[in-house]
Design a protein that fits this description.
The chain is of the alpha/beta class. The protein folds into 2 domains: about 5-140 and about 205-350, TIM Barrel (Alpha-Beta Barrel), CATH 3.20.20.70; about 140-205, no CATH class. It has 15 helices and 8 strands. It has helices at about 5-15, 25-30, 55-65, 80-95, 115-125, 145-150, 175, 185-190, 200-205, 215-220, 235-245, 265-275, 290-300, 310-340, 345-350, and strands spanning about 40-45, 70-75, 105-110, 130-135, 225-230, 250, 280-285, 305. The chain has an 8-stranded parallel β-sheet with strand order 1-8-7-6-5-4-3-2. The longest helix has about 30 residues, at about 310-340. It is globular. The chain binds flavin mononucleotide (FMN). Flavin mononucleotide binds near residues 44, 47 and 309.
């Protein structure tokens, strides 16, 4: 490093600034050198955002685009994926960053109706999505007892916009399984003749619970987009994913919403990163609430984090402004945490030594 560069870094450190020279996510998903992201933070896929705010997915995508961060858009959205892509582009253009619109990734639940899944993936590709993220930890929905008790359904007027056209043999159409005529109001569904969660019923009827790694080869026949996998916790699964040719991994236990007793995603980062050896990017989600949590994830070996609920709460409170404020808080905290830990760059963040309870710093053998 030149003396000038060293001085530059010193100045950054003094000013409490950090440089996000973070290319890996962008370049990997685009399969070419990409533009840096504003931070190693992406919005986790979350279903039905119009339950949180009337502007739902459109507001979330706008907030992500303004912040220069990627968003993973759920199959189970209440806005069509094309409309979400348009909202992101419009927000980036309004913010003067149209040439650097951060990527959108499409989160895929693989339905038994493969023709429908193929058409969904191709719609995402046509709409400019940068990658397909297949969620593999929901062969069946976890038992959500409150949803069962309340007979969860979307209120009237809201629809699972991406699932329209799915041939569903249930007692209501896929779109209306969570809204529409058959489920007139959440309250009336709670006392309806067919009790239970309509979302769980929709999953049970339509999601392919028998998925194996061969789906990666199949997906490749219907799209040229990179294929990522979300919901891996075991190093062996990470290696199987690598062998199957996935472009990236998201370590996740679905926010603790699926299998009781599953390990914390953060605890799985180190072994998976060690197994993967940086051959593909490894991201993690679950419980990232503060900038220091992002720093810890990087120090454990992750390339970045996805954040779900905190940003959803921001959306619920203030629409696009609320989601944007939550993202600003998080990226601001990350910058501050990195500065406090003496990390001018993300590469430095990855070298931070984390101490467990009772552990003390040791002299590095490199000095
Ligand atoms: C309301 C809600 C809806 C979700 N919907 C999806 C989904 O459609 N697809 C998916 O892969 N994960 C979904 N998830 C899981 C998140 O992507 C993420 O793995 C989890 O929330 C952990 O991140 P967090 O602790 O920051 O919320 C959902 C989570 C929440 C809270």
């Amino acid at each position: 490093m030149t003396a000038t560069r060293v001085r530059e870094k010193e100045r950054e450190r003094e000013a409490g600034q950090v440089t996000f020279s973070f290319h890996s996510f962008h370049s990997w998903i685009e399969n070419k050198p990409g533009r840096p992201l504003a931070a190693p933070i992406a919005i986790a896929p979350m279903a039905m955002m119009r339950l949180a705010h009337p502007d739902g997915e459109l507001a979330m995508a706008s907030a992500a685009a303004r912040a220069g961060l990627p968003m993973v858009v759920s199959t189970m959205g209440t806005a069509a994926l094309e409309d979400v892509a348009d909202a992101a582009k419009a927000a980036a253009a309004a913010a003067g960053t149209a040439t650097a619109t951060p990527p959108l990734l499409f989160q895929l639940y693989v339905t038994r109706d493969r023709a429908f899944t193929a058409s969904l993936v191709q719609r995402a590709e046509a709409a400019g999505f940068a990658a397909i993220v297949v969620t593999v930890d929901v062969p069946v929905l976890g038992k959500r007892e409150a949803d069962e008790r309340l007979g969860f359904a979307l209120p009237p007027g809201l629809r699972l916009a991406n699932l329209e056209g799915l041939a569903d043999d249930g007692d209501e159409s896929a779109g209306s399984a969570a809204g529409g005529a058959a489920a007139s109001t959440t309250a009336s569904v709670a006392t309806a003749a067919s009790p239970g969660s309509r979302l769980a019923a929709l999953f049970q009827r339509n999601i392919d619970a028998s998925l194996t790694w061969t789906f990666v080869a199949w997906l490749r026949t219907v799209t040229r987009l990179p294929i990522w996998v979300k919901g891996v916790l075991a190093p062996d699964d990470a290696l199987l994913a690598l062998r199957a040719g996935v472009g990236g991994l998201i370590i996740s236990n679905h926010g603790g919403r699926q299998l009781d007793g599953a390990p914390a995603a953060a605890d799985c980062v180190r072994p998976i990163a060690a197994a993967v050896r940086r051959r593909i990017p490894v991201w993690v989600d679950g419980g990232v609430r503060r900038g220091a949590d992002v720093l810890r994830a990087l120090a454990l070996g992750a390339d970045g984090v996805l954040v779900g609920r905190p940003i959803l709460y921001g959306l619920a409170l203030g629409g696009v402004g609320g989601a944007g404020a939550a993202l600003d808080l998080l990226t601001g905290e990350l910058r501050r945490s990195m500065a406090l830990a003496g990390c001018p760059t993300l590469a430095d963040a990855r070298r931070v030594v984390l101490l467990g309870p009772g552990e003390t710093p040791e002299v590095s053998s490199r000095l």
